[in-house]
Amino acid sequence: MPNRTILCLWLLTLPAVGQTVWHLNNTTNIGGHSVTALGNPQVISTPYGNAVQFNGLKDGLVVSNNPVAGMSKLTVELVFKHDPLTVPTAHEPRIVHIQSAGPSSAAHRLTLETRVSTQITPHTFHLDTFLRFAGAKSHNCTLFNDDSPHPVGEWTHLAVTFDGTNFCNYVNGRRERCGTLTGAVFADTGTTWIGQRNNNVNYFEGAVLALRFTPRVLATNEFMQLRGTNLFLP
């Protein structure tokens, strides 16, 4: 069986109980939830199935759902490809922004971001992730991996985990940074922005293939992988 078939079949496998998988293969309905497309994001063909391409200018998807609702422990995974920048203002993109309903100052928030270095060729990016539980007192943690550059133009697996105290991030199955914060249960309602920040800035130039949300901390050998390649580790 060709590798491409293996890859596509693996990505279409039904999630385990409690897991949610979002395949970004269209711009109107993701995971059974309505989507508002901003700008003109395009559905493209990849060796791993369809994905959504964002141009770094005005493209975004707004999903009317909070996929981590009610979670006190979690793993969030993202499969994406950063393009070499042609839009200078897209150097600090927010690829995924999940936020609970209500005033921003009192919202729970999880963001998956990068910082792109264009001073060298090819460009590289650094991972920047953020988790906040807000209430009577705000508890938050920022993990900026300024010492771990990664090449653009390649399919990449990103993951964050939270066990109730420890917030960690991973690139291609390798842990890069951890921090601590006082946790809570993520609020039940909210919205997800893909390709941009919730206030229509920090656009992403590249493609997003899939997201997966799990209400527990996964071991690295449980992360999503593109089978048949050595792209994602371990």
Protein architecture, described:
By secondary structure, this protein is mainly β. It has a single domain (3-222), classed as Jelly Rolls (Sandwich), CATH 2.60.120.200. The chain is 4% helix and 46% strand. The chain contains one helix and 17 strands. The strands form two sheets. Strands 2, 3, 6, 8, 9, 10, 11, 12 and 16 form a nine-stranded antiparallel beta sheet that branches. It is globular, with a radius of gyration of 17 Å. The relative contact order is 0.25.
**CATH topology name:** Jelly Rolls
Which oligomeric state applies? Answer: single chain
Rg: 17 Å
Q: Could you give the distance between the termini?
A: 23 Å
- What is the architecture at the second tier of CATH? Sandwich
The tally of domains stands at 1
Shape: globular
Helix content: under 10%
Please state roughly what percent of the residues sit in beta strands, choosing from under 5%, 5-15%, 15-25%, 25-35%, 35-45% or over 45%. Answer: over 45%
Give the structural class: mainly beta
Uncertain runs: 1-14, 230-234
Enumerate how many helices there are, as a single number: 1
Report the sheet with the most strands, covering strand number, pairing sense and barrel closure: 9 strands, antiparallel
CATH class: Mainly Beta
